[in-house]
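Reminder to self: tokens first, then the designed residues, so the page reads top to bottom the way the pipeline ran.
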């Protein structure tokens, strides 16, 4: 039996490819997956946010706030 806190590579890949874990085909939502940024359905396209993981959502908000702050800072300098 597989450890739920340390799933195998095959299980992680199966979760990423399972259409039931994707809302509207673009938002990844899997409460069993503890990864913050799992790969997209097509792995070479990068990573996405696991919206079922609260840490993941906080990281995403932090990144968006950082970029918004940088844009405001650049606009103020001009």
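Designed residues (78 positions):
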């Amino acid at each position: 039996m597989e450890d739920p806190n340390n799933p195998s590579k095959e299980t992680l890949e199966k979760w990423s490819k399972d259409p039931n874990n994707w809302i509207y085909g673009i938002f990844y939502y899997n409460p069993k997956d503890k990864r913050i940024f799992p790969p997209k359905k097509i792995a070479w396209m990068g990573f996405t946010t696991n919206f079922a993981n609260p840490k993941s959502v906080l990281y995403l908000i932090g990144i968006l706030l950082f970029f918004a702050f940088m844009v405001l800072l650049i606009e103020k300098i001009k």
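The radius of gyration is 16 Å.
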